[in-house]
Amino acid sequence: MIFIFELFFAKIVDYFMYLKKDITLLSGSLRKNSFNTKILRNFEAEILRYGYKCNFINLNDYNLPFYNEDIEKEGLPKNLPILKNIFQNSSGLIVSSPEYNGEISAVLKNTFDWLSRKLPGETFKQTFLGLKTIAVTSSTGKNGGTRALERLKVLLSRLGVDEDILSYSLGNTADEIFNENDDLLLESQIAKIKHLVEYFIKSIQVNQELATEQKLKVS
Ligand SMILES: Cc1cc2nc3c(=O)[nH]c(=O)nc-3n(C[C@H](O)[C@H](O)[C@H](O)COP(=O)(O)O)c2cc1C
Could you give the CA distance from residue 93 to residue 44 in angstroms, rounded to a whole number? Predict the structure, then answer.
C-alpha cells in the first residue's frame, strides 16, 4: 500500500516538474543599452506573471570564440555546456536580434553554430528540439528588422524548434519609448506582447500536457 502511494506521489511530482520547465530569453545584441535587450526584458516581465522561471542570457556573460573545428577538437569552450544545459532544461525560448545589414547579429549566429553541435551522449538536435519559440527583432529603422526576422526564423526552424514559430518586431525604436526601468511606454506594443506571451504560454502547456500523457501511458 505504502509502495503504491509512493509511486503515485512520485508520478505527481514528476508531472509538475515536467510542466514547470524554464523559459530562456536570449539577446543577440551585446550593446549595453540595446533596444533588443530592453524589449526582451519586457517579454520576461510578462512571462514571470505566469510563474515560470526565466533564464535571461546576455551574451557578454557567455563568451564563445568564433566557431572553428580546430578549437572544437582541442576542447570545448567552457560556456558551451553551460549554455546547452540552460537550453535543454527549457520549454520555451525567446530570442531577439538586431538587424545588421539585413542579417541577424554575428554573435547570435556564432552562438547558434556552437549550440547546434551534437556532443557525445546527446540526441539529434537535442538542444533545440520542440522548443516553443518567439523570434523578436527591433531596429531604429521603420521596418523593425523584418529581414533579420525572416533569417532568424529560418535558422531556428533548421535548429529544430517547434515549427509554429511566433514573431514580434518593432521599428523606429528609440530611447524615448522606454522609461527609466526599461518598461515599454507604447500601449499598443504592451498589449501585443501580452497577447503573444499568453498564446506562447498556452502552447507550451498544451505541448507539456500531451507529452506528460504520453509519458504516463508508457511508464
Ligand atoms: C553595422 C550595422 C548595420 C545595420 N544594419 C541595419 C539594417 O540592415 N536594417 C535596420 O533596420 N537597421 C540596421 N542597423 C541599425 C540597428 O538596427 C540599430 O543600431 C539597433 O538599435 C541595434 O540593435 P540594439 O539596439 O539591440 O543594439 C544597423 C546598425 C549597424 C551598427
Answer: 11
- 59 three-state secondary structure: helix
Identify each DSSP E strand in the chain by its residue range: 22-27, 54-58, 90-97, 132-138, 166-170
Q: Give all domains of the chain, ordered by start, each with its CATH number.
A: 22-218 (3.40.50.360)
Kindly give the distance from the C-alpha atom of residue 122 to the centroid of ligand 1, in angstroms, as a whole number: 36
pTM of the full structure: 0.91
Task: Calculate helix-pair angle for 79-88, 106-115, nearest 10 degrees.
Answer: 80
CA 150–ligand 1 middle distance (angstroms): 15
User: pLDDT digit string (tens) for 143-194?
Assistant: 999 999 999 999 999 999 999 999 999 999 999 999 999 999 999 999 999 9
Residues in the chain where the model's pLDDT stays below 70: 1-20, 219
Closest ligand 1 atom number to CA of residue 38: 26
As for ligand 1, residues whose beta carbon falls within 6 Å of it are 29, 31, 34-36, 98-102, 139-141, 143, 145
